[in-house]
Amino acid sequence: MVMDFDFSKYNLRCELRGHDGDVRGICVCNDETIATSSRDRTIRVWSVDPFDERVYTSSKTLLGHTNLVGPLACFPPNEEYPQGRLVSGSMDTSIFVWNLVNGENIQTLKGHAMEVTGVTVDNEDIVSASVDQTLKRWREGKLVECWKTHRSPVQTVLKLPSGELVSGSCDMSLKLWNGEKVLRTFTGHTGTVRGLAVFPENQILSASHDGLLRLWNHQGEVCLVMRGHTSRVYSVDARASGHIVSGSEDRLAKIWKDGACLQSLEHPGFVWDAKFLESGDIVTACSDGVVRIWTARDGMIADQSEIDAFYGKISQHRITLWGMNLDELPEVDSLSLPCLADGEEKTIKEGNNGVTYAWSMLKQRWGKKFRTADLDAADLEPIVEVSPAEIDAKVDSMLAICGEYLQLVQQEKTLPPEIQLTEVEKACNEKKQRLRREIATVLFAGKDQNRNEEKTPLRWSKSMEIDLEDVVISLAKKDKKPFQIQNMLKKVDLI
């Protein structure tokens, strides 16, 4: 059903609170029931409140996964399962199938060697994607097929109305499948393909870490490129009307039509997933642990006090750079002058942005730290308060990119075999904990030491990305020797 209303006037309908970690995935079971997955290892099922149709309340919490839960999909209702079945994939490498009537786990599928990153239903089969670079087909609880043609982790998989499957990967490609046969490989993205969606007339939408959305036909030709996000795009969804919604690391959910952005919905964290409801309302999953529903329908918008509280939270998360006048900043040629103090910062004008660089005595060069927003946006500051969950998400995101290149160079046999991705993941978790301790020590020096560390906002500086970004760049260069890559990894304690 296509609703006729203004897609450029969405406002907050309600906030769904209950998850203890960032919300990673959304499954729209029907317009009155949605499921969400989280880093907190749980899945929550939400239903429309019978006393207030604007609001959803948590009706079930599904427990069983032992690590982050990500992708979700659902089977439609049938006689045996009148509310349908939910499928979930997890970083614990397993896939669970749940009875939505009572929340019971009715199947556990094990076979992937690494995190399950995508699930889709194909008639009565389940097809899953994984960081282990494979796609697997499951039938009646058993593994029946395994395909491996992507050169890097597979991040997403989708069943098309025409019967084929399409997958997206860290190798920056999409593959169109008929059974185990690859019909076509779509190339054009310059970053990981993270999200996929069906578009009218049997077309395919893709979202990528390169910050772009692309619309493809079945021949692999690009019909449209949508630009507007300023960071990695994690998810995309579409309606029969041709409207599109995307979620990004830039903290925006964007609504599109005919290649133009109609509206941007700002969030206080990364937007991991965004989906349309049948009504045209939008559900978003955010790294602050909150699920939000947005509406353009009269009479469904949240009370003004709730809207004011939400935008108050947004204003607290905006980065501000006090007193900066872009026209007074030095030009890029000022970076040709060396500096005598390690860590000294200089902000210069680059186009319509102010970009801050820091001097490295070790590297004897200026390194980029962070960029301001566009000229007519709110002012920027180098440090912003974020939750521990957001720090986890940010570090995970950067390290996932390192992992992508590790997988690529391992494929090309340019990295010593003893450097395994599992070891990198373990070291990453340790590094994340060190980061949190160091940040907390600086921020809370001399303050109450009995604070609740999991709930207290910490400080995230863009400069924390420098070393990791250097590693990514170095791994991306084909001329790097194995020992040089190893040394670069050691510099950021990844090995």
Automatic annotation (TrEMBL):
Q: Which SMART domains match?
A: WD40
Report each WD repeat as a residue range.
16-49, 86-108, 186-217, 226-257
Keywords for this protein: Cytoplasm, Repeat, WD repeat
InterPro entries annotated for this entry? Answer: WD40/YVTN_repeat-like_dom_sf, WD40_PAC1, WD40_repeat_CS, WD40_repeat_dom_sf, WD40_rpt
Record has Transit peptide as a keyword: no
Pfam (any one)? WD40
Give me the Gene Ontology terms describing cellular component.
cytoplasm; nucleus
Q: Which GO terms describe its biological process?
A: proteasome-mediated ubiquitin-dependent protein catabolic process; ubiquitin recycling
- Any keyword Ribosomal protein? no
Q: Which GO terms describe its molecular function?
A: ubiquitin binding
Its protein name is Uncharacterized protein
Species this chain originates from: Arabis nemorensis
